[in-house]
Amino acid sequence: MLGAHGNIRSFPIAILATPGGGHLAEMVDKQLKGLAAENGEPSPPTFLRQSLCHRFQNGEGKGVLIDSIRGTDLYVIVDVSNHGVKYVRHGVECSMSPDEHFQDLKRLLGAVKNVAQRMTVVMPLLYESRQHKMNGRESLDCAMALQELERLNVHSIMTIDAHNSHVMNAIPMTGLENLHATYQLTKAFLKETNGNVRIDPDDLFVASPDLGGMERARYFAEHFKVHLAGFWKQRDLTRVVNGKNPILEHKFLGGSVAGKSALVVDDLLASGGSLIEVCHELKQRQVKDIFLSVTFALFSEGYEAYDEAYEQGMFTRVFGTNGTWIPPELLAREWFVPVDVTKFIAKFIRTFNQDKSVSRLLDSTEKINKLLGRTLGQREMASSQASAG
Fold this sequence. Notes:
Blueprint: E1 13-17, H1 22-38, E2 51-55, E3 61-65, E4 73-77, E5 86-89, E6 92-95, H2 98-112, E7 118-122, H3 141-151, E8 156-160, E9 175-179, H4 182-193, E10 204-208, H5 214-224, E11 227-235, E12 247-253, E13 261-269, H6 273-284, E14 290-297, H7 304-311, E15 317-321, H8 328-331, E16 336-339, H9 342-353, H10 359-362, H11 365-371, H12 378-388
Helix pairs in contact: 1-9, 4-11
């Protein structure tokens, strides 16, 4: 099938969504229609195809397709962390867990029965990504989940800021496109600070809350051309609490930061306790303003601790993307800034559908430098494109 200009092979885009991914899919659908309009191309009234995931009273379920997806380039959108979706089991209303969202994804893939031309799973928050490596005799859940999708004939999986990209080694013959929300988070930070924080090593530094996130923080620091700092989590290796060794102390790795502002970067805010501890440590070092930038703000233990820390002046803002569901009560917080990544996802779908390279989506170096009022030389451009490829 030819694309709008007659020279690009592309099958029609179709989007299915699990119950948890419905809200995200609607926003992506709107962005896809907007991109088509920007390029002077026709688009259908909607790219969404209707489906259902029925629930029985005992909690079991089944996936049902309502609209045809035969011959389409199919994208199945799932949000495994959307705890706002609920169902009744044995007369009790239950919030859906990540396991149940992932099971709904497999149900829809099973209902498709390979009649689509290609199946791509869009999963911004990668399921079980925190369990990406084994320590002793324990399960390797992320790898097992990816292999399940591969066995269901999924062609590719799109995620954003995977906790550890090395999980793609579990499915070397299936694509795992790990996109980064760096540009979107940077844009939101610059808009929110509005010149009140100078992008200068004398006024700003970037920090990682742990050693595992140093590479992510380094990327921000190199673009901002500011210093990089980090924390080492000293843990009590003699005890296990909630599946992990408790943190005894956050040890700061860096020089003098007194009077500067801090941008603390991480991929995931779960309970958020570690980031609050980091804020305390930075305030003890006389850091002026602290901005917390995360891809996924889950707040699994609620918002009260952050409300209290904000009132105490521990931090200024928390930035988090809508790659996973943002509850209304979080959106209402003065200290929270939502960051939209739905156009980013739509661009991936459009690019992938047209069989074009996604390298420019994987690396935002050029776009971030434009935000910062800088231009790249030919050598820098070549280096950036090589690393993206």
